[in-house]
Amino acid sequence: MVSMKNPWNLAKLSILGVILIIVYLPAFEWMWRQWNVSEGYYSHGLLIFIAAVYFLWLKRPQLRALTALDSSSVGFAGIGVAVILHIFAMVFRMYFLSAFSLPVMLGGIALLWGGFPVLRIIFFPLMYLYFMVPLPLVIISNLSFRMKIFAAQASTSLLTGIGIDAVLRGSTIVMPHSYLEIELPCSGLRSLISLTAFGAAFAYMATLSRIRKWILFFMAVPIALCANICRIVLLGWVSEVYGMEAAQGWVHDASGFVLFGVAVFGLAVMYIIVKPSGEEIETEER
After folding, report:
1. Is the domain of 61 the same as that of 193?
2. Who's near 59: CB < 8 A, 6+ residues apart?
3. Could you write out the DSSP letters of every residue in 230-279?
4. Structural domain ending residue among the three candidates 134, 160, 175
5. What is the pLDDT of residue 18?
6. Do residues 61 and 110 both lie within one domain?
7. Domain limits at 166?
8. Residues 118, 204 within the same domain
9. Are residues 25 and 164 in the same domain?
10. Residue 174, SS3?
11. What are the pLDDT digits (tens) for 25-38?
12. How far is 180 from 239, CA to CA, in rounded Å?
């Protein structure tokens, strides 16, 4: 049995935390570099870590209520998998695998410390940490290219639909008086990654049933894609009507903030849609 209020046990947890920081220091350094790289896709990484700590902090009442727990030997399996991944990552310098193994390690420790009741309580904060782990460059490049082509095709169709004669040549949208080149940063992958993380936190904090939370979370993907396409269409329209210099100036920079605002607004609207009415709430409670 493990007492959650025993000062000695808390001291052992603190010592274990220091050991984990030392062991995973190369992975932390790698993530920090990826978070701060110019034109990177994970500039929100530190915010994810802070949010995960906050979500864990909210679980304090539930953790304190667990006065004595039986540890689970299943934790050894989780720790073993994490150790194997970490060693493999260190040998071949695949720091993504090392960072990926950290929540697995923490989950295994939670099982050994307090069993499945503790793991269930802290499961979301642990899983949320994955949003701060940068994907391998080969995956990023492949997704960016595919999303760039999709965004270019959809934007060309929308520009044609609003009366602008637009033709797609490669990844460049050619219009009668201007053109708009869709580069990898304009693929929408950066906004998709950040908005998916935001959507997960938003759905988690929302007062909805589990299935409605999942619906709200998954809707973050099409909302982010649509918001990016709307941004490209806006830039194309400005470029054609007011000139390419106008589209490449402050409008281009401001459109990034508009994109995120539109996506957040879309999530808020989706929340209103999936939120049950008074009668549905009574039905769910029954």
Report:
1. no
2. 121, 122, 125
3. HHHHHHHHHHHHH-HHHHHTHHHHHHHHHHHHHHHHHHHHHHHHHS--HH
4. 134
5. 85
6. yes
7. 138-285
8. no
9. no
10. strand
11. 999 999 999 999 88
12. 8
Q: Enumerate residue ranges in the chain where pLDDT < 50.
A: 1-2, 4, 279, 281-286
Domain boundary, last residue among 101, 134, 167:
134
pLDDT in the model for residue 249:
72
> 213 and 148: one domain?
yes
The full DSSP string for 191-216 is HHHHHHHHHHHHHHHSS--HHHHHHH
- Confidence (pLDDT) at 5: 54
Q: What is the DSSP string of 47-91?
A: HHHHHHHHHHHHTHHHHHH--EE---THHHHHHHHHHHHHHHHHH
pTM above 0.85, yes or no: yes
CA 247 from chain centre, in angstroms, equals 29
The reported pLDDT for the residue numbered 276 is: 81
Query: Between vectors from CA 85 to CA 81 and to CA 89, what angle results, nearest 5°?
Result: 170
Same domain, 123 and 151: no
Give the per-residue pLDDT at 7.
Answer: 61
Q: Which of 170, 185, 184, 163 is nearest to 233 (CA)?
A: 163
**What is the reported pLDDT for 114?**
84
| Angle subtended at Cα 129 by Cα 127 and Cα 131, rounded to the nearest 5 degrees | 100
User: Does residue 65 sit in the same domain as residue 89?
Assistant: yes
Same domain as 210, residue 71: no
Total structural domains in the chain? 2
Write down the pLDDT at residue 8.
59
The CA distance from 170 to 172, in Å, is: 6
- Cα-based torsion angle of the residue sequence 22, 24, 27, 28 in order, rounded to the nearest 10 degrees: -60
- Cα 212 to Cα 112, 165, 215, 227: the distances in Å are 32, 41, 5, 22
Work out the mean pLDDT of the chain and round it to a whole number. Answer: 87
Q: What values do phi and psi take at 180, rounded to 5?
A: -135, 115
